[in-house]
Amino acid sequence: MYLFKKVADLRRHLDARKREGKTIGFVPTMGALHQGHASLVRKSAGETNCTVCSIFVNPTQFNEATDLAKYPRTPENDIALLLESGCSVLFMPEVEEVYPSGQQSPLHLDFGQLDQLMEGAHRPGHFAGMAQVVKRLLDIVQPDQLFMGQKDFQQFAIVQRMLSQLSLPVKLNMCATVREPDGLAMSSRNMLLSPEQHALAPLIFQTLSDAKANMHDQRPDDLKTVALRSLSKPGMEPEYFEIVDGRTLQPIANFEDHEMVVACTAVRFGTVRLIDNLVMKAP
Ligand code: AMP
Q: According to the 3-state scheme, what is the secondary structure of 70-114?
């Protein structure tokens, strides 16, 4: 595996791979890697000739300074995990390399309603920053395929919209959420939980699963009320629980009129915020 910190060095390497006719897969991350990230890398390594993983904690997508400051950084573990997952190139740039002066302005893209609800409503500026960094990294890496997790369902929908709006020739792949044996979705933020918070956190997936199990007997609004109650515990507070159309991300009134339905939630454990989702109805 090659490690590059500078755009010019990375480009020289990837240009040579392209001249050899190799296809490039790209997995953007913020590091503190776990088996969820590894699954994206393995998928890319299976479908392309050269997998590039980036580790960059993007300051422009953090709406809370404390969240950025405490975001976990585990570079040695990350490198070990990437080596065993089939990564070809690790790109680990500094902030100045990603945003040299003159390239810091956010993109002004219209995501319709996709970035207004859920994460968009609770994390002002988050999706503008996320889209900005994904676009910048795509310009740098110029991959054939992009691999992202279902864990961040709304992020995936927004990136999909951005690729189509900008007519970028990149194939976007959604990879299933990897979970702990107790159902908790793997997340870099899990390591910030205290043991007590960690013990409570599997309730998120349990609540999503209960909503799905009861979807034939109850209306979405009622399922939402039950779920919010179930997620409200001492030390645990839901920010939202929404049952939405899988394409528009708008809350739904009934299941019949929608081909794809996803339950999405964000839950706070003190200062740590976790998100998860579950497809209730697939197309
Ligand atoms: P992050 O480093 O958290 O920004 O995530 C980088 C990529 O990994 C995103 O595409 C996430 O959706 C994906 N990802 C994060 N956690 C998981 C997980 N538990 N299972 C699958 N993909 C994940």
A: HCCCCHHHHHHHHHHHCCCEEECCCHHHHCCCCCCCCCCCCCCCC
Question: Are 21 and 119 in a shared domain?
Answer: yes
- pLDDT over 70 percentage in the chain: 98
Q: What is the CATH number of the domain that holds 198?
A: 3.30.1300.10
Q: What pTM does this model have?
A: 0.97
Which residue's CA is the closest to the ligand 1 atom numbered 10? 148
Domain that residue 256 falls in: 188-276
Most ligand 1 atoms within 8 A of CB, residue of 37, 174, 177 to mutate: 37
Closest C-alpha residue for ligand 1 atom 11: 149
Q: What SS3 state is found at 152?
A: helix
126 flagged as catalytic: no
For residue 109, what pLDDT is reported? 87
Is the pLDDT at 261 greater than 70, yes or no?
yes
Is the sign of the CA dihedral 9, 32, 76, 24 positive or negative? Answer: negative
Distance of alpha carbon 175 from alpha carbon 62, whole angstroms: 24
The CATH number of residue 128's host domain is 3.40.50.620
